[in-house]
Amino acid sequence: MPTPLARRGPRGGGERLTVLDPATGEALDEVPDQQPDELDAAIERAHEAWRGWRADPAARTTALHAAADAVAAAGADLAPLLTREQGKPLAESHAEVARTVARLRYFAELDPGTQPVTDGRPVRSELRWRPLGPVAAIVPWNFPLQLASAKFAPALAAGNTMVLKPSPFTPLASRLLGAVMSAALPEGVLTIVTGREPLGARLASHPGIRHVTFTGSAATGRAVAGAAAASLARVTLELGGNDAAILLEDVEVERIADRLFWAAFRNCGQVCMAVKRVYAPAPLCSQVAEALAQRAKSAVVGAGLDPGTQLGPVNNAPQLARIERYTARALADGARAVTGGHRLEGPGYFFAPTILAEVPPHSPVVTAEQFGPVLPVLPYGSLDEAVEAANSTGFGLGGSVWGSDPDRAEAVAGRLECGTVWINHHGELSLAQPFAGTKESGVGIAGGPWGLYGNLSPFVVHRPQEA
Ligand code: NAD
């Protein structure tokens, strides 16, 4: 997303960024557009805080549970604010808050432990783990709290301190979250900085940062990796996806249609691991497209705070323009909109839930990441053809296989080149599992113990047995 569209606010008391409400397109609030000296000061504070924070794992566990309590208690303020700036239905914002709380508690209890290391010689070696130091996190606008917590929970549990930058499109709930957590954490352990670029680039290249963990597009991920190379900071990159769902010929279309639809359209399709392409056996293709179109027509689209809303607006104007562009190009390439295909009249960034059929496989809505409420349904002849098409993009985040025989579906799962494959559903992640994309979808592992170790440095004490 090249152009953050937050507008510059009135001067006085430092530069400000205006945050827009995507349901209306109107100004919602402002945050500081922080400058290099403020970033330096935040990183300095993270260094000072690290000395104490790294020293006492038991105190960290207590503090992280207290932070989780504070976040849970603030849910009634955090969730509506998140909905107003991000657009998602209120229940989904509450789910983000709940996930943040659960993640803090999960990592608070994880202990990296120590492991004996031996190759059979009479040597006593022990592997221990050390925190890295002050680390940086850069987060996108689709799940601001949930993705922030995926970064700060393992990092803080590991004994690191963190400076975290939310997207300029969605900084409000993150700032409130930081304030809420600061009641439970020592000063400087977690600092939220806000502002437009080049704030993220400065953070990624800052010599005081030991690890940069980034979630966002592959293009920005490349820039972040380049910036971090200046200080040889470690990088973890969670990037885009173009997940394929392969339907096998024994699939019961009506039985799976609801699940498949929501796996693609939840959060208005703005999910890295949403279903972004459906491959159906050619004889089933129109039935699948029709079943999904029925769900698309009946989905309630509206402001996230309106009771009953199932699909909110797209988060921001550049993203809406991209979705319009991809859809128009597909239609120009010969695709047919089974339903939707256009933005909705009126204020705000609303796009009609769209099912596309007869889409040429080279159309960007198939080959790239649409990241919006638009889903192409593509026919295949043989299963080999479907697997090859699913693996044909540069992405490798997730995928799914759907059919009446889960064992057969699972056999196909092993052929997909990606980090997670779901059978007869798509997108669920447990806190305990590793989350890692292959190919251009990521570098490094988040989630579960792997996420904790990604925030630690191995340290081996090696001595002969008799010593
Ligand atoms: P983006 O790459 O445009 O921005 C992500 C973050 O990087 C924002 O905070 C942005 O301000 C910041 N940024 C922009 N330029 C930067 C630079 N040069 N240096 C450092 N930081 C910079 O992504 P987005 O549009 O906010 O989010 C959508 C993308 O995120 C999609 O591609 C989606 O698939 C991906 N995503 C991936 C995951 C995952 O876990 N794999 C999860 C959610 C979203």
TrEMBL record:
Domain Aldehyde dehydrogenase: start-end pairs: 15-452
Active-site residues per Swiss-Prot or TrEMBL entry: 238
Name this protein carries in UniProt: Aldehyde dehydrogenase family protein
Keywords from the named record: Oxidoreductase
Cross-referenced PANTHER family: ALDEHYDE DEHYDROGENASE-RELATED
Family designation: Belongs to the aldehyde dehydrogenase family.
A Pfam family annotated for this UniProt entry: Aldedh
Protein's organism: Streptomyces axinellae
Region of interest (Disordered), ranges: 1-31
Matches recorded under InterPro entries: Ald_DH/histidinol_DH, Ald_DH_C, Ald_DH_CS_CYS, Ald_DH_CS_GLU, Ald_DH_N, Aldehyde_DH_dom
